[in-house]
Amino acid sequence: MIEIDDLHKRYGDKTALAGVSFSVKPGEMFGFVGANGAGKTTTMRILMGVLTADSGQVRWNGGPLAFADRRRFGYMPEERGLYQKMKIAEQVEYFGRLNGLAPAAARKATSDLLERLSLTERAGDEVGALSLGNQQRVQLAVALVHEPEALVLDEPFSGLDPIAVDALAEVLVERRRAGAPVLFSSHQLDLVERLCDAVGIISAGRMVASGTVGELRAGEGRGVLRVVVREAAPGWTAGLPGDLAADGDEVLFTGVDGDGQEILRAATAAGRVEHFGWERPSLTEIFREAVA
């Protein structure tokens, strides 16, 4: 498990992090989202030992995260760290060797990853000759080549086409199924909502929301209860909880506590209930609310 505990970081008069805390469990994919400058990259750099926190701790499996532990992580920084004149296959294999793989294992892992990321035909090309999207794929292969015990990826889907996004997502899901905690940041909130088990939202260096996607979408006061009652008795909504807006047979309730059973009983007594269900906000809507 990766644990981020009360991280603080300042640059002169600017507060970058102000008590950031969250955890990523084994076999969990955690989406770390926030606006530009919110503190995502600073948090990840501290996690990977690139920066030092002013205070707070980073723990791995209950103990302080050490250099030897980080060697077993797969890390993809926000800025690409590739050798532009080096051939793709040689580069991925080289990083595999740096991370402890034997030559044969590094070659096989490189071949498998290049095939998965649709780079086999470009294996002999120099990185500098690739498009930005394909360079992103190579950077991902470098992070994944040694089958890391945990993944920390800063904007891994940036610049990828839909086919490459699906290929990477499949690889990340495989690492999650193998028990690895996977932490990645992204501005593509629909993708985060689709892939992640849990989400943390950071704004101005503070965690403003954290939990599973289901918990965040079903949070107190969130969501609209949509009720459609055909041939309803006039005034059937009188005295019911929450705020409502009626349009013919359809009534939308907001601000309802609980599961709305009182409303369901009243609707059933009033007429034929054609629809009764919650319409939960998307992650994008929750993000806008949280950082407002």
TrEMBL record:
The keyword Glycoprotein does not apply. It is a peripheral membrane protein. InterPro entries: AAA+_ATPase, ABC_transporter-like_ATP-bd, ABC_transporter-like_CS, ABC_transporter_ATP-binding, DrrA1/2-like_C, P-loop_NTPase. Its main location: membrane. It comes from Planomonospora sphaerica. GO terms for biological process: response to antibiotic. This is ABC transporter ATP-binding protein. GO terms for cellular component: plasma membrane. Belongs to the ABC transporter superfamily. Pfam families: ABC_tran (PF00005), DrrA1-3_C (PF13732). It comes from the Bacteria. GO terms for molecular function: ATP binding; ATP hydrolysis activity. It is found in: Cell membrane. Keywords: Antibiotic resistance, ATP-binding, Nucleotide-binding, Transport. Residues 2-229 form the ABC transporter domain.
